[in-house]
């Protein structure tokens, strides 16, 4: 089972809490998630931290995965500045 989550144009602190809750729900039900980051124009470090923690939590739980697809240039640039490209499995 795979579901998609679409990040809004402004993925900031207000998005971090609900995103974390969605990840926890998916992990507990064994549901894989795909996070579409194509619309992101601005992303905050708290939101990126939740994504990194989510990647780690899904990996530890096994059975389900978290994939980030189509990161916008703004998303990729912020992740790069913060040194999170590898943690988010986005390469360079």
From TrEMBL:
Coiled coil: none annotated. InterPro entries: MlaB-like_STAS (IPR058548), STAS_dom (IPR002645), STAS_dom_sf (IPR036513). SUPFAM superfamilies: SpoIIaa-like. It holds the Pfam family STAS_2. Residues 12-92 form the STAS domain. This is Anti-anti-sigma regulatory factor. It comes from Rhizomicrobium palustre.
